[in-house]
Fold this protein.
Amino acid sequence: MSTRHQLCLLAALCSFTAYAQEWEREIDHVEISPVPFNGKSSSYCPVYYEDGLLFTSTRGNKQVFQRKDPVTDQALSLIFTVTRTDSSRWGKVEPVGGDLSRYIHYGPACLNKQQDNIYFTRNNDDSKVVELSNNLGIYIADFQGGVIGNTRPFKHNHAKFDFGQPSITHDGQRLYFVANRPDGFGGTDIYVSHLVEGEWSVPTNLGEHINTRGDELFPTSHSDGRLYFSSDGRRRNKGLDIFYTEEVNGQLKEPVPLHSSFNSKADDFGIVFDSSGLHGYFSSNRAMENDTDQIFEFQIHQYWPDFDKCTDLALEQYCYQFHEKSLKKSESMLFVYEWDFGDGTKARSLSADHCFSGPGTYQIRLSVIDTISGTETKNVASYDLQVEKPQAVIITAPDTVMAGQPFDMHGHETEINGFEPKRYYWNIVGVQRIRDDALGITLEEEGEVTVELGVVGLNKKRKERKFCSKKTIIVAR
C-alpha cells in the first residue's frame, strides 16, 4: 500500500448489496485509460480544478528541497495541478504554491464549488520531519491562482487520531472525511460535520450500515447528492472497492458497489464524475507491480433497452366514439340528436368523437332536440361511463411548450395491472435521450417533436417487462 494509504487498515468480510445488479444493468461498457501525466511516482485522488485537475502525488517538487518519507523512502506527498489543453493533451504538471512545509505530507485535497477554498490533509506538526507520531489533520485555506494561503486547522482535529481525506458538498454545508477515532466501527470510518452559523459541528459517524469492521476511505461528494467512497470491509475483491450511497427520506441507503470495470482486484478509490455522471477520473494501483497509484480516465457508455412499437397516447388517452346503433339518422331538419358527455361539452350528431380530460365517472345522455325551440323532446339514452386510466405508459408533459423555455416531464402516473415500473427511458426523437425524470428540458426549434417514454419493470412473477408510449409536443414561439 502506497503513501496515500497512510492510515492503518484492517481486513474484514461483509456481504454486498443486491443494488449492484441495478448499477450493472445501467451500463453497457466502460472505457478506461491511464492519464498521460501519471509518471513513475504515485498520483491519486483527482478533483476538478478550472480546465483540468488538482491531485496528490509523490513525484516531488524539484523547485524546493523536499524531505523523503522515512517509512516509504518516497518523496513526501504534495498537491499538484494540471490543465487539459484539448481532448487528448495535457499541459505541464505544477505544484501548488504558498507557505508549505518541506517536512510533511500534503493531500488528498478538495475544493469548494467556487474553487476559492481548499480543504486538504496534512500532518499536524509542520515543523519536524514526518513520523508516525505526527498525526494527520484536515486544514482549510484560501486558494487563488494555485496558491494556498491563510491556512487554518479544522476545529475538530485531534492530536492522538488521524483526520483526513476531506470532501465538501456542492452547497458547502457538509464536510465528509475519514478518521480512526475510537468510537468508530473499524480501522477508519467516514464522518460528517455540518456548517452551522459559520462553525463546523461536532463530527457524526455515518453509522455501521456505511462503516464496516474494515476501512472506509476516500469519500467524494457528488453534486447529485451521491457519496462515493472506498472500502475493504465489503470485500468482493482483495483490495479497496468503490461504492456509493445516497439519501432516501433523510437516511443514507445501503452502499452500492460500482460496475466491475471500476472495482478490480487491486485498490480502487478517489473517484470523481463530471455533471453528466458518465465521465470522470479515479485512482488505482491495478496497472503497476510496485503498488504505485495512477489516475485513470473513464467514459461510461450506457445501456439503452430496445422497445417495441410505442403506443400513441393521442389514440389511447380518454378518447371515445359514441354511436347509438338502434337509431337511424334523422332526415328532418326540425329534430337533431345531441350528446351530452357529462363534462360540460355537447355535440349534435348521431355519432360523435370525444376526448375526456382525465379518468372519472361521466353521465352520458343522448337526446332528441327540437331545433326550433331548442328544447329536448325525448331522452334516447342515459348511462354512466367509467373512464379508466389506459393500460399504457403515461407521459405527463405539456401539449405545447415555448421554444427556449424549460419544462418537465415524468412517467410516474403509469399504472399497468401487474406491472411495477423500475426505470424510465426518454427519447426526444432527434434531440436527446434522458433517464428517469426529464426535468428542465428546453427545445429550441419550432414545430412538432415526438417524445417516447420506455419503462422497464417487473411483472407479478418478478420477470422483466417493457412498455413504451409516445406523444407529440408542439414547440411554439
Summary: Confidence is low (pLDDT under 50) at residues 1-21. The helical segments are 20-25, 313-316. The domain at 311-387 is CATH 2.60.40.10 (Immunoglobulin-like). DSSP finds two helices and 38 strands in the chain.
